[in-house]
Amino acid sequence: MASISKLSIRGIRSFSPNDEEQVIAFCFPLTIIVGANGCGKTTIIEALKYSVTGSLPPGNKSGQSFVHDPRSLGMSVVKANVKLRFNNRGNQSMVVIRSMEVTQKKSTASFKALDGIIRTQDPNTGERVSLSHKCTELDKQIPALMGVSKPILEHVVFCHQEDSSWPLQEGAVLKKRFDDIFDSTRYAKALEAIKASRKEYAAQVKDLKADLEGLKSHKHAASGFLEELENCKDQISQLDDEIQRCNEGMERERETAAEAGAVLAEIQQFDCEMDLKQQELERQEAVLASQRDMMGQDDMTGRYSYEELKTMLRELNDKDYANQAMRELEDKEREIEEIIRGLERARKVANELNAKKGKLEAEKDAYNLLLKQRFKVMEEIHKTHGVECDLTQTQDDDTLTQGTAASRMSLSTMFTSAGTILGEDIAISQEDVEAFTRALNQKELSLKAKLNEAKERNRSEEDEMQKDIAELQVKLSAVDSNKKRIEESKREALRELEQVKSNMRPSYSRVRKADVEEAKRQAADLAKSRDQFNNDPRREEIIREFKVLEDKLKSLSESIEQDTKIRDQLRLTADSQAEIDMLEKQAAQEFDGLKDKIRENSGFLAANGEVVRVTEDDPVCPLQVVKDNIRQKYENAEREIDRCHKTVSDLQSKVTEKNALLTNHKGRLAQLRLKATQLDHEDGPVQKISRVVNALVREQRDLVEEDEIKPESPPTEVIKFISQQINELGSVLKDDQISKVIKRIKKMGKDACPCCTKEFVTAAEYKAFQNRMAELADEDTSELIRVNQAKSKEAAAILSKLERWRQTISDNMNSHNEFNNINAEIRELESHIEAEGDAELKNLKTALEKEEATAGSKKEQSKVLLNLLEVVNTMVDMAERFWEKKRQVKNKKDELKRNLLGYVGSDSRDLKRVERDITDSVLSKEQAYLEISKLNNEQKSLNEKISPTSAEKNARDKEDSYNRDQVSIKRQDELNELLQKLAAEDTILDKSKHPLNAERLKKESNRESMRKSNEIEESRLSDELRSFEKDALRLQEIADKIDYYARSNIEREMEQIESRLLSNTDMIKEDEAKIERMKPEIDLLKKQVDDSGRQKTKIQNNIDLMKLERWVMEMTDEHSKMVEKRESMGGAEVEKRCSKAKAKYNEYKENKTRIEGRKQGLDEQKRMLRRKLKEPEYYDVEERHRVKMIEHETTQIVVHDLDKYYDALDKALLRYHGMKINDINKIIRELWTLTYKGEDITNIQITSDQDSGGRATRSYNYRIVMSKGNTEMDMRGRCSAGQRVLASIVIRLALAETFCLNCGVMALDEPTTNLDFENKRGLAIALAQIIASRAAQSNFQLVVITHDEDFVSMMKQELSSQTGFNMPERYYQVSREQGHDDWDEL
Fold this sequence. Notes:
Oligomer: single chain
Helix content: over 70%
Low-confidence stretches: 393-407, 418-425, 1252-1256, 1379-1386
Largest sheet: 7 strands, antiparallel
Number of strands: 18
Shape: elongated
Mean pLDDT: 76
């Protein structure tokens, strides 16, 4: 609970702003302040009220008269402040400081309230914390800290003397005060706000209902459009089916027409074959007739049959075969044919070997080029990087079999002399290459060592410099620390110096030593006269009488206390029973609410496998079990969610990894495709070879009979084929060879033609043969030679073209192979991406989506369980509240039984008898108080004569002031000396800091420069090392290719090919020589068999003629059969069937066109409906209708809820207001009975009448009524001034008892005004009883300000009798002195 500790005042009212602050400490439980009129007692109440509420006293709204008048001091500005130390409702000590000033102008004065301060102490660190606030903020914060509203503080706790009778003021003022105290205005505004919100939401419900109706109509229209759209879709589907049937019919009729057309085509084909057969028959008949005419007399078909001619030819052949010349001729011809075939094979082998030789020579040329490149790279490395070693120099010529001359030389000498050796290649042995490689490795190690050495050296230099900078930084930090320490000391000294100056009084108001001596002299004179009154015997008698009266008061107080307890217990019996009934009713309501809550949520509980059954005997345990079960399910769901999240995280990682891998593959695929595109561009190597192959495919039909080369053939096969063609084209006969052959044929043709073996029957035939042969042998006129020359030219052109093609393919073969490899890799990557990458990624994404869906469902389950857990927690709270109220009912019933048994016991008095006994004891007690009061007055007069005088106090005060001033002056001098010393030390530190800072900056600049130079050096060495490694890698690649050539044994393979070529050439020459030697022998043998050949030719011609004749007869029979077949095939029926199929086809086509037209109309209607549904009023109308309906329903629920809230708050206000009024009237009745000693007014109370307005404008009119017998009447205007004062005090005490639960402070300013002796004594008794009953509370404080010392004596006597202690032991007396005000403690 809150309480007040000390109050400090300066510059308020008559408290001077130039004097020291006047401080008063408030005691527990009672603080009494007495003093004459005008000495400043009421100012204390005003200061307390202003410090906690910020409210000015009545009649001081502008505040000028609240502050000390500047004109009395001759000043233009006067500042005032009030300090109050208090404990807040948490018992934490706090200080509030409020300051203000008044500025005096020519004719007016202006008041200004300055910002206030709240000072507190941190409970953890003990540090003081001060916060500045505006006045309006303080006015809100201080009442909140004290736990009491501002109206209570203003009108009840710290009520001003002029405003103390407000309970009996006019109705408007009384209504406003009570409304503020009950805080009714705020709740009335809350009711109005609820009603306004309800009205606003009701209007929204109407608007939403209208919008909902509009959306409903649009939804109905949209449903119609959707239905039409579905009908359109159904009709379109039906039309599609009809179109499909038309298409099937068209296809069927097309097939039928096609079959008939095929039959017609077959008939036409058959007719064409018949025509061709007829033409062939006629041509062969003409040939037969022509041959008969040509044979003339040699025609033997009429004389001999076919079998006879065959027999003759067979006999003639048998006879010739027996001829030795014929057999020898055949043997020679077979032998020469074998030789020719062997010669062809040898030439083919020679061509293949030449192709291989050309390929190997190309590889050797590439090898020599690599040797030159290696030499050039080595030279570049030597010149660039300075690599040195000893090498063996070998000079080779172009042949591979000649020896080499070797000598040792250095690398520099070799590279220098290499340029002077013209036409020679510098070959380097394997030992030299290995030596150079070792030199490269040594050079690389040297460069790396230099780089590492430079890095280590730079690092050590930087560390050394950083160490120096750190040392300088430490020194600077020490200087800064010392400066900081000096600055802190200076601030402390200045703060203390300022405090000393503020505590010192001005020089003109200081006490001088002479003033102290004068005050001591006056005090000594007065002390002599006081000693004379110390031996008065009446003082002892008064003490004995006091003792007797105190014993009497003690016994009376005990009797009154015992009777009061019995009376209170008897009165509380009814109240306790009412309280028990109210608790039972509340418990029943709680249990009904619990059952309703369980019934409302039984469905949700059953859905999660929980069933709740509670009884009044044990409502908590079943709910606790359900709560634990649901919490366990919720925790399991959360763990499952965590597992799903972990699985999702793992799958996401795998998806990310697979995406990265696919991205890498796709990036590699893009690179390969780019490389393939570069190789496959229009002028690229691949297109060159492709163009060559395509051209070769187009022209190979002129070279060979079958397609040996295809567009997809590999380049090696194409080169092989081109080489074969080149070899074949290279064997074309020359003109002289043709002439020789023809001349030989001419010589051989004596009796018959050597070519066709036809005998020369007449000399004319022989002469014609000879002339024809001579003509063919002549190079100028021979047709064969001209044809051969043309073929030779053509063959030369083809040969040149083939050579170019072979060279093109050879030049681009490597690029083509690389292109094929790239395509293979592309296909592999594409298959990998298609087979593994995308499929696996899709599976991972599917698993990820599945886990995410699982996690989502688990989240929904967890959310449902969490909501259900909150509902069950609410049920458990309701059950615990019910159980607690039930326990309270039981305890109160037991307590009521015990109290009645303990207090009443065997006492048989009723309530009226006990009240009469209490009244008699109180009257006896009051009589004793009167006697004590008389003794107090007598003792007071004696004490005034012997009490220490103000002169002695004045002397002590002046001496204390003089000593304090001297101590302050001495401390001020010490602080000034300390400040001078600290300033000198600060100057020395500033001087020492500058060179250290300059040196540190210099070191840091040097470090940055060194870092830049080191970075440049390291970058240079790194670039040198990277350049060296790049050149070394290039040299290594060339060396690997050279090593591959050396390992492939190409030289030995070339030697083998050369050897095979030589042997094959010898074989070809030998075969050609054999053929030349055998030709004369064959010619001779042919001449010998020519004669028999002519006869055989004649017979053979007759046999052929008979064969032709037989064939003509067979063809005639076949033609007759074809004519018969043609007649049986028909044709008209097939044409009719074909025409019918075409007609049906056209019918189906027209039907399809008509249906498609209808479909287009329906499609247009469907598009129109879709456009209609996309319009704003129909688009997503179902969702908007659903959302608007939900909004309408929820808003309607809000309206119902606001009605419930309004009714609940209104009922709560009525109940609260009635309960508080009853509590206040109960306390008023007790206090009035105790304090008022008159017989005319038996009781007073507060009545509240409700206005006739509605609930929203409900307010209360308050009245103070008094009871005279059974009659109640308004007290205002019907009571005396004393009754008004007493009634106001009683009402304030009752309000404080009711509303000041967190603050036990109460201030009464001049409570005895207009009271007679009896009522004054009654008030003292009532206050004493209140103090005695609440003295056990550590924070109960009653502040009484009065000028009536008799009332103080009554209070003291009553407190002594009530508590058994002499209370209060002291009180404050306020007095006014010339020049300054002071507080004296007595």
